[in-house]
Specification:
This protein has 501 residues and is α+β, with helices and mostly antiparallel strands. 33% of the residues lie in helices and 23% in strands. The strands form seven sheets. A seven-stranded mixed β-sheet has the order 17-18-16-15-21-22-23. It has a six-stranded mixed β-sheet with strand order 3-2-1-5-14-13, with helices on both faces. α1 packs across α6, α9 packs across α14 and α12 packs across α13. The termini are far apart.
Length: 501
Amino acid sequence: MSQYIAAIDQGTTSTRCLVFDHDGRVVSTQAREHQQYFPAAGWVEHDPLELWANTREVATGALAQAGLSARDIAAVGIANQRETAVVWDRLSGEPVHNAIVWQDTRTARLCAELGGDAGPTRYQGRTGLPLATYFSGPKIRWMLAEVDGARRRAHHGALCAGTIDTWLLWNMTGGPRGGRHVTDATNASRTLLMDLDTLRWDEAIAADMGVPVSLLPQIHSSSEVYGTVTEPAALAGVPIAGILGDQQAATFGQACLSVGEAKNTYGTGNFMLLNTGAQQVRSRHGLLTTVCYQLGSQQPVYALEGSIAVTGSLVQWVRDNLGMISSAAEIERLAASVDDNGGAYFVPAFSGLFAPHWRPDARGALVGLTRYVNRGHLARAVLEATAFQSREVLEAMNADCGAALTSLKVDGGMVGNELLMQFQADILGVPVIRPVINETSALGAAYAAGLAVGFWSGTAEIRANWTADRRWEPTMAPQRREDLYAQWRKAVTRTLNWVND
């Protein structure tokens, strides 16, 4: 009997493969970073062929590290950066263009044109999403319009399109030789092209956007067998049985399986999701209504989401662009060298502001500077930016739901930063809880795949596997908390109306 589940976690900065046992513990892991391309201001791209090559490499490496073969793996799950879009040739498997990443802002004018007199909310009633550069539908439209011959080839059925889960699944199940062109409902719900009620492509919206429905993958549930692996060889014959967008995967991995349970993932950006069950809660405060997960033939579970574009990537920017630190881990020590931010606030609107503002015209700003401010204060302002943005989202979530969250589960690369986690609890005024297994995106994809093949009997086993590792209680005086937050909100106003076109 196969004893393990493998999960591919294809993220914004790296691709990883993790192998989990029945208790949800990591048996082995391999990771590889990929190149980030910035061909113009606000443009962000990845090479799809590099992502596929790295996927093959890390999957092979993870099995080799644990001394396992395909016979030991019951199923494979995929978690992925969600709104990043790829268009490729059906016969050759060659992408027509680099993947356009979720952070990319090149479609701002297109989104404004599509909104027309109705504005950003034109399709929100059907899709749960505002018209914004974040989502993948406009990115596909851009590639069809801007790549020579792409629109003609699309209308003749020569091209495929999809998000990164679809690209990987197609390649893993044969590519040009019968690869499965499939996505799941969580990823489809991030395209601006899917009807939230029917979980089908909305042909009218697709027509408005100039995206042929024939170009798009079939929409399936998040937990079922989609096909079997042909490549990499190390996993040949293993069923691929789970797909979840990475933030929905983290929600599932955190066992947020009941209405009212929420998690916040601290990665390249931050993503807070609240399980709303069978109810689609329509936000009045700048949040997204999205599919949380769908298990097989069961009814979908929905979520409210607050998406923040730049958090962990701000630390990378300080490291790579400013050279202020040599590793991401150094920022905590530098920030701890001072007692506060010295009056400095960093609003990292590099890709505009996402939730709850949705302002593509915003750009990053560092404000409140005096000669007193030093490197330590700047490091602290960088970390505090993540916590302040998360509070904005939590307040919107509380307003939409009419009830305040009493605690917040956290995961992702930044939750090892204890200074940040304490400040997050302080600025939210609620406990922040980190699980023992922090690889929640990969774990959620593994759970979805394992449930589909009977490796886990049901969600009760997923709940039983979840265990808290560390809990941070708020210690900041309420007046201090509100004063800091008021200054942050003032700083945000300084970033607006920066881009005229």
